[in-house]
Amino acid sequence: MISCKRTDSNNEDFRFLVSQLDALLRVVDGDEHSFFAQYNKLDLIKHVVVAYDNDEPVGCGAIKEYAADTMEVKRMFVLPSLRGKGIASAVLKELEDWCWEMNYAKCILETSVRLPEAIMLYERRGYERIPRYGQYENVETSVCFEKQLTK
Asked: What is the CATH number of the domain that holds 127?
């Protein structure tokens, strides 16, 4: 059974999962990896969700403030062998609930055109494509999304 735990970026399980994510992204991003990596420093992330399956860490995600009413979803990852089981959706829902509890009105995020499964996840969860924002504005491989939060 999947359970989600709220924590912070010092969590060892989160750091393990992020190391797996970064290894994957080094391949996916290729020459662009160092550009993206500079925006994913863990010391800037205070709100983390780790998903567990029988006490084993299997997925994660995080949020950080982007604007007074907006949180940015970061570091979403599920172990490749366990994808398609609803883990990412559970993590994303927990992150959205946490945002709502902290009185944020929306979530934004960036992903890569090279990650079609991620794009499908966000669309299934009600995220809508928006123009590329901030540091991603001129990055052709970036796809950005936004979701208004409601209860």
From this structure: 3.40.630.30
